[in-house]
Amino acid sequence: GAVVSQHPSWVICKSGTSVKIECRSLDFQATTMFWYRQFPKQSLMLMATSNEGSKATYEQGVEKDKFLINHASLTLSTLTVTSAHPEDSSFYICSALTELPSAYTDTQYFGPGTRLTVL
Amino acid sequence: AQRVTQPEKLLSVFKGAPVELKCNYSYSGSPELFWYVQYSRQRLQLLLRHISRESIKGFTADLNKGETSFHLKKPFAQEEDSAMYYCAPPSTLTKSNAGGTSYGKLTFGQGTILTVHP
User: Fold this and answer.
1) How confident is the model at residue A106 (pLDDT cuts 50, 70, 90)?
2) Do B23 and B71 contact (CB within 8 A), yes or no?
3) Picking from A68-72, A82-86, A101-105, which range would have the lowest pLDDT averaged per residue?
4) Helix-strand-coil percent breakdown of chain B, rounded to 5?
5) B39 interface with A at CB cutoff 8 Å
6) CA dist A119 to A5, A41, A84, A87, B117, Å?
7) How many CB atoms lie within 10 A of CB B6?
C-alpha cells in the first residue's frame, strides 16, 4: 500500500514551453502533497506544499507563477512549470501524506520522480 | 522549527566494516525522527522510524536525547547499502485557531552518500 506515482517519468521540452507533471496517490487519499526539486547528488529541496482544495504554500525563493500547483482531488496534484528554461532542468519529486484520523505525525510516501530537461 | 543536521556529506567504508551515519537534531518537544534512503535510480523510501524501534536491513538508530542525536548504525556494511541517506523529523499536523488543519513540512537533512567498497 501507500504507492505514489508520477507522470511522466521523464520529459524533454523546448525553452519557453510549459510542462505539467502529475503526482497521484494510488491507494490512499492525500490531503497534502509536497513537491521537491533535487539536483544530482544533493538533498531534496522543498518547493511547495500542495493542499487539496486550497492554494499551495510555496517556500521562500520559489516563484509561484513559475511553478503552478493544483491539487484538484484527494489523489492528484499537478505541478506545471511555465515558460520553462534550461535552468529549470532538474529532477522533480512529489510526496504524499496519508490521511490521519487521530495521529499527530506521519511519514511521507514518495513518487519515483520526473526528470525534466529543457533544451 | 524542526531541524536536523547530517555533518557528513560523504562516507566510505569497506564491506563488512561497521558504519555510522550521523544525524543531530535541534528542536524542542518530543523528538520523533526518521531515516530515509534513496538507492541509485530508485525512489526515496522510509528506512526506519524512531518510534517503532525496529531494525530494517540490519540498520538501527537510537535516539540520544542528551546528545540530541539519532545516528544510523549497521555493524557489517554490505555493498548494496550504498545509497543516499537522509535524516528527517516527521511532518507535523497542527490545528489552527479556526479549527482547520494545517500540515507541516518534512525538512530533510543534507543527506549522506554512503559508499561501501568491496
Assistant:
1) low
2) yes
3) A101-105
4) 5, 45, 50
5) no
6) 25, 22, 9, 10, 37
7) 22
Q: Give, in degrees to the nearest 5, the angle at Cα B3 between B1 and B4.
A: 170
Q: What is the pLDDT of residue B114?
A: 97
| A105: contact with B, CB 8 A cutoff | yes
Q: Do B93 and A49 touch (CB under 8 A)?
A: no
Model confidence pLDDT, tens digit, residues B52-104: 666 778 999 988 888 888 999 999 999 999 999 999 876 655 444 444 444 45
DSSP B87: E
Nearest chain B CA: its distance from A44 CA (Å): 7
Chain B residues near residue A113 by CB distance under 8 angstroms: 43
Nearest CA in chain A to B47: A107
Cell of A60: 521562500
Report yes or no: B109 at the A interface, CB cutoff 8 Å.
yes
